[in-house]
Specification:
Organism: Lactococcus lactis subsp. cremoris
CATH class: Alpha Beta
CATH topology: BirA Bifunctional Protein, domain 2
Shape: elongated
Structural class: alpha+beta
Order of helices and strands: EEHEHEHEE
Keywords: Plasmid
Largest sheet: 6 strands, antiparallel
Radius of gyration: 15 Å
CATH architecture: 2-Layer Sandwich
Pfam family, one: Relaxase
Protein name: MobD mobilization protein
Number of strands: 6
Distance between the termini: 35 Å
């Protein structure tokens, strides 16, 4: 069984650069992702540079005339967990996560997804920045 939830502390919404930075550091942690083998992104050239790339997208939106909003959203943080009884490999879980995010967000979103293997249950974690909602 798959469960998708958002972290309690932020309710899944990242309202600051620091929040985005912290989420990305946690998500792409090499100790949790088979040394980065289980990390992917969409509209991100290098997932380990996702923070800088996402902020560049924000800056480009500002330069094109969009104004930062009050209580701006810098991204969203989701977790997709799988039961050990599902008997899935980390690679299968990662592929399911990628397909889920692409179907949910479409082609215009920037996101990073990482499959964590550090707990009994495999889980995908990801922050994303939906380009249509930039600043």
């Amino acid at each position: 069984m798959t469960v998708i939830n958002m972290p309690n502390k932020s309710k899944g919404t990242l309202h600051s650069k620091q929040g985005l930075s912290s989420a990305l550091k946690y998500i792409i942690d090499p100790q949790k992702t088979n040394n980065g083998e289980l990390v992917s992104g969409q509209n991100i050239n290098v997932p380990s540079n996702a923070y800088d790339e996402m902020l560049l997208t924000r800056e480009m939106a500002i330069l094109s005339g969009k104004k930062p909003r009050e209580n701006e959203i810098f991204g969203y943080h989701f977790t997709q967990s799988f039961s050990p009884e599902d008997n899935l490999t980390p690679e299968q879980v990662h592929e399911i996560g990628l397909k889920t995010m692409k179907a949910y967000l479409g082609e215009s979103a920037e996101f990073v997804i990482a499959t964590h293997t550090d707990k009994e249950h495999l889980h995908n974690v990801r922050p994303d920045r939906v380009l249509s909602q930039v600043v």
